[in-house]
Design a protein that fits this description.
Helix content: 40-55%
Oligomer: single chain
Shape: elongated
Number of helices: 3
């Protein structure tokens, strides 16, 4: 039994050292994990800063767009003329339109929104453009007798929302009667 105890005593310090070296390996693994986590956080921060750069570019574009719009408004502003603020032009949600005297009964601008048609599900993939749509609409209206004057194109303006990535647009017709047909 003494021999057994001596062997056991000799082995115990060895096991203690082995457990200490195992603990050091665990610490090294933990350090590696921490370093890897730190690197991942830095990479995430870089990606975030790239997206903030994109947001900054977007804000700059919006500032330029608003500045250009304000320049158009200021260019069309005449002292003492027009409506509120002295503007001779106004944005009707579709295009810039000259401000007209509201006392005129047959004012073209007064019925502008009523003469506008919404165009949805436009087939861009088939190559439809504003000009081709305008020509096709005029020919169809003329062939079906829907024009007040068959020799004059009733389609005043066609606008597609291509720049917004959408497949819709608007078409402005010259008279409310032709629009209703």
């Amino acid at each position: 039994q003494k021999l057994f105890l001596l062997i056991l005593a000799a082995l115990l310090p060895c096991c203690g050292r082995a457990s200490r070296t195992m603990g050091r390996e665990d610490e090294r693994d933990g350090d590696r994990d921490r370093d890897r986590d730190r690197k991942e956080k830095k990479e995430k921060k870089k990606r975030r800063s790239a997206s903030s750069e994109s947001a900054e570019r977007s804000r700059e574009r919006e500032k330029r767009r608003r500045k250009q719009q304000q320049e158009v408004v200021n260019k069309n502003r005449k002292a003492g003329e027009g409506g509120p603020g002295g503007q001779s032009m106004f944005w009707d949600g579709f295009q810039w339109v000259p401000r007209a005297d509201t006392g005129v009964a047959n004012d073209v601008n007064a019925s502008r929104k009523n003469r506008r048609l919404y165009l949805g599900n436009l087939p861009y993939h088939l190559g439809v453009t504003e000009d081709s749509f305008s020509k096709q609409l005029y020919e169809t209206m003329r062939d079906r007798g829907m024009c007040n004057d068959p020799n004059q194109n009733p389609v005043l303006h066609v606008w597609f929302a291509r720049d917004k990535g959408a497949n819709y647009g608007f078409c402005e017709i010259s008279s409310m009667e032709e629009t209703d047909r």
